[in-house]
Amino acid sequence: MMLIQCKNASFAYDGRSAVSGLNFTVHTGDYLCIVGENGSGKSTLIKGLLRLKMPASGSVEFGDGLRASEIGYLPQQTAVQKDFPASVYEVVLSGRLSHRGIFPFYTKEDRRAAAENMERLGVVSLRKQCYRELSGGQQQRVLLARALCATKKVLLLDEPVAGLDPLVTQELYRLIRDINKTLEITIIMVSHDVASAVRYADHILHQQNQQAFFGSAEDYERSPVGRAFLGGDRL
């Protein structure tokens, strides 16, 4: 079933195009990686998918009753976020804020979801630890558990393995793939790691301030733009 569809969408800042010609569809259960060089419009598209920025032309449509508030989002971490003085449990539980509406207090269901997702991501033993005292890999697991608390449909991940060592990176990739396959949660991931994108994702969207490629990971490997990037010319 269609969850997100871009129809000839373009986004601009101050009248200048940031990315254009976006025509792609994300279905339930898909695993899509968005790749491309810095400045190619990936961050702008993320804002569009989150309804934080409206298209200058074309459209971004949601299906299956999806709302922007139901997208679990894991952004790139800033130095301030890495130093956040809260417990692991508090950080994970905060993923339920979008479900609270006008009600100020967490419910039993919110706490159950936090506990389940901490178990799923292997961070239960860290429950009482301060988030800022964790390693980079542990922090990303906590943030992924937090994002899962916000959704049962779509996870939007912005460079989730940036700055992690190779072993932790592969562990996180496997966790994300397992979430996609086991929970049938749709994954949309922005990544500079093109080789791993092709290895784990089902579909690739390659941006160069416009849509340079959209299709299966297998077709991307055979495409001119895919061969150029996977050959190491621009990595």
Task: Please provide a written account of the structure.
The chain is of the alpha/beta class. The protein folds into two domains: 1-66 and 153-235, Rossmann fold (3-Layer(aba) Sandwich); 87-151, no CATH class. 35% of the residues lie in helices and 26% in strands. The protein has nine helices and nine strands. The protein has helices spanning 42-49, 79-82, 88-93, 108-120, 136-149, 166-182, 194-200, 217-222, 224-230, and strands spanning 2-13, 16-27, 31-35, 57-62, 71-74, 154-158, 186-190, 203-207, 211-216. The strands form two sheets. Strands 5-6-7-3-8-9 form a six-stranded mixed sheet, sandwiched between helices. α4 packs across α5 (136-149). It starts with a strand and ends in a 5-residue tail after the last helix. The mean pLDDT is 91.
Brief digest:
This protein has 235 residues and is α/β, with parallel strands linked by helices.
Secondary structure blueprint with pairings:
Elements: E1 2-13, E2 16-27, E3 31-35, H1 42-49, E4 57-62, E5 71-74, H2 79-82, H3 88-93, H4 108-120, H5 136-149, E6 154-158, H6 166-182, E7 186-190, H7 194-200, E8 203-207, E9 211-216, H8 217-222, H9 224-230
Parallel strand pairs: 3-7, 3-8, 5-6, 6-7
Antiparallel strand pairs: 1-2, 1-4, 8-9
Helix pairs in contact: 4-5
Features:
235 residues, alpha/beta, Rossmann fold, six-stranded mixed sheet, 9 strands
